[in-house]
UniProtKB/TrEMBL annotation:
Residues 1-19 form the signal peptide. InterPro entries: Chaperone_Skp, Skp_dom_sf. This is Outer membrane chaperone Skp (OmpH). GO terms for biological process: protein stabilization. One of its GO terms (molecular function) is unfolded protein binding. Belongs to the Skp family. PANTHER family: CHAPERONE PROTEIN SKP (PTHR35089).
Length: 193
């Protein structure tokens, strides 16, 4: 009798777990690939790259001037009066400080530019993900790869060997990207180390 009770209990648990699992559908999305093929994100990154190149050119000019003045300072002989040496050393220190401040301001400007425009792009991607999840009746969509910038050490992934659960191409289509290098190709699924 006890055996039958355990059997019925186990059977009822398996049926309820099976019924529960049938209502849950998982899918993955390669967010890096989505962003890399999204025109608005490409445009943002091109703007940042252009600004970064300009800042690097200015910094390179500043460095060349600093190196010239340093070389001139090092060539001053022992007969050079102390006030001249101090003035040249002060000038070098000011140039060095200026270069450091410029680099800090340039970095801050690039971060600000990214932070001001990326949220709108991210909002569009999240909306496309939500629309795909609704359209394909997917309960959970997870990233395929770890976001190491956010401190993740392992990818937030539910294993998926079924190509139909990869919504990367459909999300790009919802975002208006109809052609890209790997459209329709099988990409790796599952947990990647």
């Amino acid at each position: 009798m006890m055996r039958n009770v355990f059997f019925l209990l186990a059977l009822s648990m398996m049926v309820s777990v099976n019924a529960l699992c049938q209502n849950i559908k998982f899918a993955t999305v390669d967010l890096e690939y989505v962003y890399a093929n999204l025109p608005s994100y490409k445009k943002l990154m091109a703007e940042i790259d252009t600004a970064s190149s300009r800042y690097q050119a200015v910094q390179k000019e500043k460095l060349a001037i600093y190196q010239q003045k340093m070389q001139a300072y090092q060539q001053l002989g022992k007969q050079t009066p102390e006030p001249v040496l101090k003035d040249k050393a002060t000038e070098l220190g000011a140039l060095e400080t200026s270069m450091q401040e410029f680099q800090a301001n340039a970095d801050r400007d690039l971060r600000t530019k990214y932070a001001s425009k990326f949220p709108e792009i991210e909002k569009a991607v999240k909306a496309a993900i939500a629309a795909c999840a609704k359209e394909f009746q997917v309960t959970y969509i997870s990233r395929k790869y770890a976001d190491y910038n956010a401190g993740e050490s392992k990818p937030l992934v539910v294993f998926s060997a079924d190509m139909q659960t990869d919504l990367t191409d459909q999300i790009l289509t919802k975002l208006g990207v109809t052609t890209h290098a790997e459209k329709g190709k099988k990409r790796q699924h599952g947990i990647l180390k």
